[in-house]
């Protein structure tokens, strides 16, 4: 099966995908896009150049995922901890969604991609929100790949908000404590309605979650690479998918 897939994958980089032709493709892939700054530093460039180049990788991997027949692609673009960075870098990062969508939105629409966002909107500047919301509205009826940007996202904040929501329902008699289960919790997370990621990819050699989807990744397959995000290509993505296909997912069973 692996060999057959290889053949199809190498074909897929040359022509549009035939998703039905692939077996056992992860339905939901989540990526911690890391290493932009180090990529730039290695080249004697400012960190911003790394973020700019990282944007091109977003486009590359969106196309690659769509070709393979991945249904959901969640990309960690800005964490609730990234506000700790120098203001100039934060300001630059806040402008990236608008820049990316200005260039790519038409093509995303043409390719039937549905844009979504998960994160805490309240702290984001209005121009960031409006660019993302425009993309969400314009692609809402698309039925292809769901491209989900995690923007000002933090797993602990997400879970705390869900817990507060559940507590309020209990306090007001809308929910009984004994009825609180996985689904009640999952429905109150920012991923409500999305399946859990099948595969998590993190670039740049860091082996941690950095507050990303800690509820949803409970049974995801994890794949790490030393490659920095700006140089992450379709071939690396295929490597991750092939490794995923070799794994036996047991979910605690046999
Ligand atoms: C990932 O690259 C992008 C964001 C976190 C916004 P980094 O900016 O973290 O790059 P490194 O890890 O410093 O190299
Ligand atoms: C995680 O990367 C956040 C994003 C990729 C958006 P970081 O670079 O912020 O993570 P740490 O600080 O190395 O854990
Ligand atoms: Mg980093």
UniProtKB/TrEMBL annotation:
Pfam families reported for this sequence: Prenyltransf (PF01255)
Query: Cofactors per UniProt?
Result: Mg(2+)
Q: What is its EC number?
A: 2.5.1.-
Q: Which UniProt keywords apply?
A: Magnesium, Metal-binding, Transferase
Molecular function GO labels: ditrans,polycis-undecaprenyl-diphosphate synthase [(2E,6E)-farnesyl-diphosphate specific] activity; magnesium ion binding; manganese ion binding
One biological process term in Gene Ontology: polyprenol biosynthetic process
The Gene Ontology CC terms held by the record are: cytosol
Reply yes or no: does the keyword Cell membrane apply. Answer: no
Q: How is the cofactor bound?
A: Binds 2 magnesium ions per subunit.
Gene3D superfamilies assigned: Decaprenyl diphosphate synthase-like
Query: What residues does Mg(2+) bind to?
Result: 34, 221
Record: active site: 34, 82
Residues that bind substrate: 35-39, 47, 51, 79-81, 83, 85, 202, 208-210
Keyword Membrane in annotation: no
Which domain of life, per UniProt?
Answer: Bacteria
Summary of the function given for this chain in its UniProt record: Catalyzes the condensation of isopentenyl diphosphate (IPP) with allylic pyrophosphates generating different type of terpenoids.
Family, as annotated: Belongs to the UPP synthase family.
The family database entries (HAMAP family) matched by this protein are listed as: ISPT (MF_01139)
- Kindly state the subunit structure of this protein: Homodimer.
**Record-given protein name:** Isoprenyl transferase
